[in-house]
Amino acid sequence: MTILLYELVGADERRPFSPHCWKAALALAHKGLAFRTVPVRFTEIAGIENGATAKLPLIRDGDRLISDSFAIALYLEETYPDRPTLFAGEGGKAMARFVERWSQLTLHTFIGEAALMDIHDMLGPADRAYFRESREARFGRRLEEVPADREARLPAFRESLAPLRTLFRQQPFMGGERPLFADHIVAGALQWARVTSPFSFLAADDPVAEWFARCLDLYDGLCRRVPAAA
């Protein structure tokens, strides 16, 4: 049975952008599972699966509904143990939890602010109103003010990637020769940036950019099928 993946989109339903939804999509592809995506906009989330979730991603696997990208990965690992592993054991799960926290505190913080107006501009009218109201309440200032200093903050963001940069000079993926869910966590964040904003978050010659290019090519180019923002 084909798994359903509910994923967040803007006005163009062909451009899913949520980092968490991309993590789930990469996890499903990593496991080699057949899945179908269902595009959902911000203001439509409450209406899917009888109000089963307030946030995406959400998957339906038969009669099971699972939300939250990490919970989805754990579910897939447990339910489909004969498929390629996402964690390679308990140590891999612990590593992925660390990477998840680091990604949210370091990557998501900067990307979410730097790409804020770009994300707003790719939404439909109803979602724009929701997005503006909710994000201005979160940041305590007008939406347009939040990314204004992104150029000045960019060097510090790139410097924060030094642990990844040194790692990828030694091995192709966080998982070693092959990716694990930890790779998908960071790739999901950078795919969020790639799909939503033309801003150059990474230098072209950065080993992190080279690693991300490898991630874009995984699973028959799953991520690369969605063009970068122009």
TrEMBL record:
Residues 8-84 form the GST N-terminal domain. PROSITE patterns: GST_NTER. InterPro entries: Glutathione-S-Trfase_C_sf, Glutathione_S-Trfase_N, GST_UstS-like_C, Thioredoxin-like_sf. It comes from the Bacteria. This is Glutathione S-transferase family protein. SUPFAM superfamilies: GST C-terminal domain-like, Thioredoxin-like. Pfam families: GST_C_7, GST_N_3.
